[in-house]
Amino acid sequence: MKGGKRFGFAALVVVGDAKGRVGFGHGKAREVPEAIQKATAAAKKAMVRVSLRDGRTLHHDGVGHFGAGRVYVRSAAQGTGIIAGGPMRAVFEALGVADVVTKSVGTSNPYNMIRATFAALGEQTSPKAVAQRRGKKIADLMARRGDVSARVAEADAEAVA
Questions:
Q1: Strands 69-75 and 62-66
Q2: Which of 31, 108, 111, 132 lies 20 to 30 Å from 63, alpha-carbon distance?
C-alpha cells in the first residue's frame, strides 16, 4: 500500500482449564479477531500438564529462563494468592494455581516472560513421580523432607504392625 499503511496485529493468548493444564499461543493477522483465533488455536494445541499440590499451589520452587528473561516461582501457603506480574499472572490463573509467589528478572517482554514461566513449570515434579522414578514409597520421601503428616502415617503403620 502507498505509504506503508497496511497494519498487522499480533496476539499472545494463554488458555487453561484451571485444573492443571495450560498452554500459550501466538497469532498474527490483518484483523484483531483473526489474530486472537490463531493464537487460541495454537495455545490449545500446545497445552501442558502441571501437577499441583492440593490443587492450589506448586510442589516446589523453580527457576525458568528464556532469552533475557528469568523467572522465579515459589509455592506459597494457603491464602497467599497469586503474587505475579503481568503475563505470569494470566498463566497461573489459567493453570488453576491459587497461591504462588513469583519474581521476573531481566525483561518485561511478555513473550519471553511467558516462555520462561513455562520453562519453570516444566521443571515441576510431584512426589508421586519422584517416588516412582526412584522405586520408593511416597511416605519415605516425605519423611526425609521432614513432613509431619508423613511421620504420623509412618508411626500409624508401625503401630498397626
A1: antiparallel
A2: 132
